[in-house]
Design goal:
The protein is an alpha+beta fold and about 325 residues long. The chain contains 12 helices and 11 strands.
């Protein structure tokens, strides 16, 4: 029996950053928590907290459980029955990396539960294969800005420290958009001109972010690879991407597969209120209700807290404390 409890705090992420389709990501200061321990009841149990958790499985088909078992198998360890608790501030299927944060949280928690035999790079490789692209998982695992590539066999990444003045405004529409549906909107082929356009913009964006040349972001975040094709799925998106810089944004993009829109801003900008009003009003004009939120880049990957549990009555009394009670004071709600 493993008498250990692990809680992992995982950042959300935004992917693509405009032109960097499936290769650029940034961790954001919005979080999910996963608690994991070996079940003391002889059966797997779940406690799911937070909006949008109602439809998630509470049996062994749950993603977190299945990912944990991959870790145990890779490490040659058997922990068939688990107690898993989850709380998330990250809205599901909105383009803020909810599935990537769940995968990273499950990998890191399961690894910590058995003494962390797997390296971060091994967890990254597993996560990339599960997610099908490395951008969100790299950002959530390593923090900051992640530049990554995957050839179907091996993923690589480079981490860039976000500029201290960089801040993000997200507008989260009150409707879901699955990544699968958003990908189906994309063409199977693109022109050489559009490919060259995106290579140039992505290169410029990475250089601007790495060097702190924030003034170049407005030019570098333009995209011809995916955003024009997804615009029909999010009314108001085209106007926001074209005009956000008129209201003080450094640049704007569709966050991941959407429908969330993200604008990057200098934290000292005097135009932040005007930008927020513009995003809200533009979506409202299309009949879309949206929540806006100011988020700083998250500089770190998962934070892991581990307890060695005593055996007996004291352990049982600790079991009665919910995850929400343990993380009280950290959550935004």
């Amino acid at each position: 029996m493993i008498n250990r409890r692990v809680i992992v705090k995982i950042p959300a992420s935004t992917a693509n950053l405009g032109p960097g389709f499936d290769s650029l990501g940034m961790a954001l200061s919005l979080f999910a928590w996963i608690e994991m321990e070996q079940s003391h009841t002889g059966m797997t149990t779940f406690q799911l907290h937070g909006d949008g958790m109602d439809g998630l499985p509470t049996d062994k088909s749950n993603l977190v459980y299945k990912v944990a078992q991959l870790v145990f198998k890779e490490a040659g360890v058997e922990v068939p029955e688990l107690h898993i608790a989850m709380y998330s501030e990250i809205p599901l299927t909105r383009g803020l990396g909810s599935s990537a944060s769940a995968i990273i949280g499950a990998l890191v928690a399961a690894n910590a539960l058995i003494g962390s035999p797997l390296s971060d790079d091994k967890l990254f490789q597993i996560a990339t294969e599960l997610e099908g692209h490395p951008d969100n998982v790299a950002a959530s695992l390593f923090g900051g800005i992640a530049v990554s590539a995957w050839d179907g066999a091996e993923a690589q990444h480079v981490r860039i420290e976000p500029h201290p003045s960089l801040e993000a405004l997200v507008a989260i529409p009150a409707f879901e958009l699955s990544t699968e549906k958003a990908r189906h909107a994309l063409p199977s082929q693109i022109s050489m001109a559009d490919a060259v356009f995106n290579v140039g913009r992505t290169s410029l964006l990475v250089a601007a972010l790495a060097s702190g040349e924030l003034g170049l972001i407005r030019h570098a975040m333009k995209d011809r690879l995916h955003q024009p094709y997804r615009a029909a799925l999010i009314p108001g998106m085209t106007e926001i991407l074209e005009r956000a810089t008129d209201f003080g944004a450094l640049g704007a993009a569709l966050s991941g597969a959407g429908p969330t829109l993200i604008a990057f801003v200098d934290a000292a900008s005097p135009d932040k209120a005007a930008l927020e009003n513009f995003l809200r009003a533009t979506l409202q004009k299309e009949g879309i209700t949206a929540e806006t939120m100011w988020l700083a880049p998250c500089m770190n990957g998962p934070e892991v807290t581990t307890w060695e549990l005593p055996v007996g009555s004291e352990a049982l009394s600790q079991e009665r404390m919910s995850l929400l009670e343990r993380i009280k004071g950290e959550v935004k709600a």
